[in-house]
Amino acid sequence: MRQFRLCVLLSVISLSQCSSKCAESSPYFTCNGATVIVIDGTHHMRSYTEVDKEISYIENHVIPRLGLGKDFKAAFMLSGTRDHEKWERKYASSPKEACSELQSLDDVARKNSLGKESLKKILQRIVNEHFEFHHPFIFFSKSDDKDEISEAAEYARMYVRNEITVVALGGKASAWRNFPAVSVFAIEVDNLDSSKNLSYCIAERTCSITNESSKCAESSPYCNCNGATVIVIDGTHHMHSYTEIDKEISYIENHVIPRLGLGKDFKAAFMLSGTRDHEKILQRIVNEHFEFHHPLILFSKSDDKDEISEAAEYARMYVRNEITVVALSGKASAWRNFPAVSVFAIEVGNLDSSKNLGYCIAERTCSITNE
After folding, report:
1. Cβ-Cβ contacts under 8 Å for 103 (sequence gap 6 or more)
2. CATH superfamily of the domain spanning 19-214
3. Which residue from 363, 330, 367, 370 is spatially nearest to 184, judged by alpha carbons?
4. Taking the complete model, does pTM exceed 0.90, yes or no?
5. What backbone torsions phi and psi does residue 255 show, to the nearest 5 degrees?
6. pLDDT of 16-34, one tens digit each?
7. Which fold has domain 219-370?
8. pLDDT tens, 234-252?
């Protein structure tokens, strides 16, 4: 009996420690609005253990960074389970409430998960139920089934107005190339806990940022990379003046280049658009010397949907490079249907004040061998 009571006591202590860890709040941003986080509990996850790792990462690394409160809330969906009605209509307005929701979902996952539910059906659940069109989604998925993703992409373009960020737990961003996500972060589920800055990138995508917290002043690590990248600088008519171009180049010089780990195994090339009569930017890239496997970092202030749609059509047909867009107009929505693996929206005047964008860009430029 004493042994049984001791086991119960240890379990209570363990749960208490886990809850208090999750409830610690050190947000990167002061946000407003709401976000919806979709957790993969489908057949793509090999076991409940993988689902548990995913939920634990959200609980311990994402929730504390979201700045939950009266002005910003989070809701959660668990896919791949029939028992979902109870959880989908709750918005948590504090880390403690969010942790409670996630622990309940973890119990559901333990008993009833790994069911077959397609990405399209998950999106239909979102659209058919209660989530506001302006709430961004953080979509965790281990699927790398291109047919399934294409079917979901077609549905998303027609019916989903929310901005979607994908965390590709299969570790393959390329499978999501044509999905209309504003960002795709590829990381294997087993490596979630070891990625120090992914939580920043997720937090940046969840909310309308009103203020960067001073607690965000942590230094981003360098990446040890291999290969090469091409950085395209916007020098076109979309920039209001040379001053804006200078701010853009200064940001790349002072905040991006130091993070790239340039050396004998990793190189960078640069293009400045808008400087003379030449072919369109993406055509220049294709027609010139850049290797198809080199990722492109495309700085652009354009928010002209016709121009971006024309470029998107060309990119799908001819560009095999992975493209990350830094949308200097501050509007990610204009790039919704462009085949980018990530879109980071920030006004050119705010570049210097975004402390960790340099890490997010570095993460997209290279095959990372070590954080």
Report:
1. 19, 59
2. von Willebrand factor, type A domain (3.40.50.410)
3. 363
4. no
5. -120, -25
6. 334 445 657 788 777 888 8
7. Rossmann fold (3.40.50)
8. 999 999 999 999 999 999 9
